[in-house]
Amino acid sequence: MTEIPDGIVLKRDRDLEGRQYDVWIRRGLMSLVAAVPVIALFNVFGQRPETHMLVGPAASLKIYAPDRLRGGLLFEGRFHITARQDIKDAYLVLGPGWAEGMSINTIEPSPVSEASNSGRLSLELGHIGAGKSFILFMQFQVNPTNIALGRKQTVWLNDGSDRLLTFSRDITIFP
Amino acid sequence: MDIALRGIVLFLFVYLLTRVIGRRELSSLQPFDLILLIVLGDSIQQGLTQDDYSITGAVSAVGTIASLRVLASWSAFRFPWLRRALDGHPVVLVEDGKVIEKNLRRERLTIDDLAEQARTNELASIADVQWAIFEPSGTISFIPKQ
Question: Which residues contact A59 (CB under 8 A, 6 or more apart)?
């Protein structure tokens, strides 16, 4: 019988007694690790834009923006307004959830004016004739420390002080 | 504060990864593994410090990871029952020139891998090996027959 190296316990290290499940634990944990990118493919962790369509008697509004985001992500919010009637002075009003912890890199085309409307971001778009479209592109970046679960993002489309459409959604920002 | 929390989460994730990926993959540094390590480091760095270019941020991140590493090794030293989970135990692959195939399969090693490692240890044949032990570090120790 040859000498067993120091620190080696044959039952444990050769016969693997009490270690028969280790490999299954390892496989299980590895499956969990591998599951993360698979889940990500299904947009669970976001970035893929969602389209929301609202139709009212005076206008329709199509919003194209992701509702699941991650810290540091650059993304676009596209607001497509189609006037069914003449809108004399269109205002797109964004709730604070759109700006909270976000960098707004650019708004194209630039609004006629920007103002605060009871804490909301009010963007004056001007006149949109009946049957005409107006597409507002906003480029955002999520601040790296911004984390959110079910934060409200509300959009109002107004003609002057008259409310034409209201839309609200919840966003999730993963760390 | 945020960096410390990120550091803790990423440390735990990387620790888990090193335990579940398998010793073989960790110990071998083939060209692809080297590239993988660089990509891994780069991806982790972005999640860790993001746009923080400050010295304070770097010190917080490195300090968190270094402290957790020391804590993990101290825990493994202080509590033997934790050692199995944190570091793992060795696995005997060869005893008295005979390959223990069950153990070899468990570690996803082939006879060729073993023979290659034996050759790098100046052992021409596995039959000349008294003990071959797959260490928790991922290296294979060979003790030749007398």
Answer: A81, A82, A83, A84, A85, A87, A90, A128, A157, A164, A165
CA dist B128 and B145 (Å) reads 6
Task: Give the dihedral sign, CA B24/B25/B26/B31.
Answer: positive
Tokens representing A83 are 């006037």
Interchain CB distance below 8 Å, B2 and A145: yes
Name every residue in A having a CB less than 8 A away from some CB of B.
2, 5, 7-8, 10, 12-14, 16, 19, 23, 26, 29-30, 33, 71-72, 144-145, 175
CB atoms within 10 A of CB B19: 19
Note if the pTM is more than 0.80.
no
- Disruptive mutation site among A11, A22, A142 for chain B (greatest number of B CBs within 10 Å): A22
Cβ neighbours for A57, distance < 8 A, ≥ 6 positions apart: A84, A85
Angle between the B2-21 and A22-41 helix axes, to the nearest 10 degrees?
Answer: 120
- Taking CA atoms, B107 is separated from A14, A121, B93, in Å, by 13, 59, 9
Residue appearing with tokens 């400050």:
B54
B80 compared with A113, residue with greater pLDDT: A113
ipTM: 0.72
Is the confidence at residue B10, as pLDDT, over 70? yes
pLDDT in tens, B13-60: 988 888 887 766 666 667 887 888 888 888 888 888 877 888 988 899
What is the DSSP secondary structure assignment for residue A140, as one 8-state letter?
A: E
**pLDDT over 90 (residue B12):** yes
